[in-house]
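Researcher: Good morning. I'm working through a list of sequences from a screen, and I'd like to move beyond sequence-only analysis. For each chain I'm collecting a predicted structure so we can compare shapes side by side. This is the next one on the list. No need for commentary yet; just the structure.
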Amino acid sequence: MEETKKLAIPDGYEFDRVENGEVILKKKEVVLPKTFEKCSEMCIDDLTAQVLLVIPRNERDSINAICQLLVCRNAWWKQLGWKPDWKKNREKYCIYSWEGNVVPKGISALGNHIIAFPTPEVRDQFYVAFKDLIEEAKELL
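Model: Good morning. Structure tokens for this chain:
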């Protein structure tokens, strides 16, 4: 009679194979969307459309860009299984604006920044993917 057992696979891993009676797991490859369209598809259940939103005319493009960046940031956080805890003194890797310029390589432990990630590599990938939106929204970062 064959014996079977159920195993709980830890988050971030998936079944690979059985080798010499041992279950081999492999780390799941995290796919981070590189366009606003892909990000919005991933977060469709978390989005809402506002029919009437009163905004200053000269900031319309910046506000639109920041909204798109938030959707993309949330999609990346979802894929990474991460969200910053600003109450804990741990480094977060941020993109922000300082003196009118984008700072794409920021680090923060306690200061809140709207675009933050768990590693410098992920932050840098986000900057490359969404540089145009970041530049458009820089006055609001």
